[in-house]
Each structure stands twice: as structure tokens, then as C-alpha cells.
Automatic annotation (TrEMBL):
It comes from the Bacteria. Coiled coil: none annotated. Keywords: Transferase. Pfam families: CoA_transf_3. This is Formyl-coenzyme A transferase. Transmembrane segments: none annotated. SUPFAM superfamilies: CoA-transferase family III (CaiB/BaiF). InterPro entries: CoA-transferase_III, CoA-Trfase_fam_III, CoA-Trfase_III_dom3_sf, CoA-Trfase_III_dom_1_sf. The keyword Transmembrane does not apply. It comes from Variibacter gotjawalensis. The lineage of its organism: Bacteria, Pseudomonadati, Pseudomonadota, Alphaproteobacteria, Hyphomicrobiales. GO terms for molecular function: formyl-CoA transferase activity. Its EC number is 2.8.3.16.
Amino acid sequence: MTQPLNGITVLDFTTLLPGPLAALMLAEAGADVIKIERPGGEDMREGPPRWDGASINFGMLNRGKKSIQLDLKAKDAIARLRPLIEKADVLIEQFRPGVMERLGVGYDAIRKINPRIVYCSISGYGQKGPRSGEAGHDINYIASTGLLALSPGTQQSPTIPPALIADIAGGSFPAVMNILLGLRQRDLTGEGSYIDIAMTDAMFTFTWHALAMAAGGYGYPGPGEARLTGGSPRYQIYPTKDGKLVACGSLEPKFWASFLDAIGMTKDEVNEKDAEGAKARIASRIREQTADHWQPILAKADCCATIVASVEEALRDTQFADRGLFEHQLKGPSGATTMALPVPIAPGYRAKPGAVATAELGADDKLLG
């Protein structure tokens, strides 16, 4: 089967989540991904949770890759890497700024060996600026860009976001997008390029609504004040009688009218000028009945209101199964199989569903010089 990235070789120097996920998506589209690990492998190999005697987190993120072990501080490291550097199309690294240069594998050094390479660095704050060397994780990046402040919960009960937004939407996705752009540019110019991905940069894209409000003269919204962060009864989460939740996204007038009709309320009862009062009255009505009561009513109303599903419930939803999201499998060390991580690569660009193992540590050391 011919895939879009057949013939593309990727050197993956990354660990943990952002870089490995980016490299995984390239692998799923047909690229030959070679993971360069320190002797003994990256830390996530030994982390929980475990499945089939190995880390399932590592397995899901490194399915279908190759693995070599190399001490980048060794005197012969560059010489041993050279054959791979010469044939590589893409290099992805995720060290703090300056580390790859100190190890002798920074962009300038690699470009001298292979001027056609697309070299992508992923870091928290980018390769330059006063905070470029600052340590951080996802929660720090969304905190420092104002995104977390838009919906942090209450002082009494602050909310931890359910998704690693900076890691994936600020690291993995922009890395893949720009690597593909870099490869396309190379098609046109014959030259490679350097890509500086800062996970924090994309977080400002996610604050678009707050930026638009300020630009329009309405000021920056406070915590939970904006229409899409809790300030409107139309875009809200309402608890049911049995402790489940209704996610209401009835923003447009027709959906809002249908939602109110479905729950037996009128616009006169819900005065949106008093947003807090409107939210309280709707919450009181929703809390009168169970999720099982509301689910068919809201579904029939087609009003952008949904019962919040658990991950386990979502996996049983035929909508997602019918789309083939869970057909690909991860093969463990014993030959056991489990669901592979779903990735947003169009089915026509991926290999046919099947069981594929993760990168076995050092199994491909023969690729080194």
C-alpha cells in the first residue's frame, strides 16, 4: 500500500508526549521513524500503567517505530549517527534550547551533513526569549498564556483541565503540520529548513475569543465570564438528578429555543440578561430528572445538548466504532493485542488495520555506523 510518507525517514530524539506523538502520526502516514534513545531507553518505558509487562503509555505513543540506543555524549556518537543523518528527511528533538547544540547535533551541524533535512525543535517557550530555558509542563504553559485563567474553576475548587492542550495542540499537532509544510517547501526549493515549535505560542490561538473581546472594546473576560467559558446559560454544564451531567451548547437561537422547549421552559422564564439567575433556574430543572430521562428528550430535540459520557461509555458508542477509530491494534511483547491510540490521520493515508508492535529498545542498533 502506498502511503503519503512512504520513503520518508524520521529521526525521533524525543521523549514523553509531544514529540513521540508527532512522530507517531508521521509513522501512521507511512514514514520510517527511528527513535534514538539513551542507553537503557527513555523513562516512559518503565512508567505506569503497565500492560503485557510493558508501559502501555510508551507502547501507544511509539507503535510502529524502530529503536536504537546511543549515548549522545560519547566521542563517536556523531560518527555512528552519520549514516542515518545523511539519509534522513526529518529530525525531531525535544530537549531544552541549546542541548542539541552542546551535543553536536544542533541544526547547523546536521545541516552541514544533510542540507535537505527538515529539523524540528519542540520546547515549552521556544528557542529564544527570556523564558526559553524555563522548565514547565502542560499546566504551566496554559497558565502562563492566560488560557487557564479563562476557566480555572473556583477559588474553593480549582479545576485541572482534562486534556494536555499545550503538549498535543501546542506541540504535537503544530510539529506535524509544519514538518509537512517543510517537506513541501523542500519539494519546491530543494532545501531543508529549521522549525521552532513553542508549545506556549499556540495557546494564544486558543484564547481567540478573549482576544476578540478585548479588540472589540469589551475588555478581557475574567474567569468564567466569557460566553464560551461559563458566562452564558446557553453554553453550560448542568448536573442531573443521578449525578451525571448535561453538556449544553445551544448557542444559536434555533437550538436555544429547542433546548428550552425540550426541558419545559420558556424564554420568559429564563431571562438571559440575568445570566446567573438563568443558569440557576435551568440547573434546577435539569436536576429534577436523571440522565436517562433527559437523553432521549434532548436527542429528539436536536438542540446541541448531550449527556456527558465517560471514556468507557464513549468507547461503546457505535458512532466511533463505525468510523473505525479502534480497528488498529498495538501488539505487546507476548503477542497480546490491545487498542492502538486513535490518531487524526485520515484512514486512506494509514496502513490497513492490524496489530503492530512498539519500538523494541535497541532492536535496530544495526542501523548505526
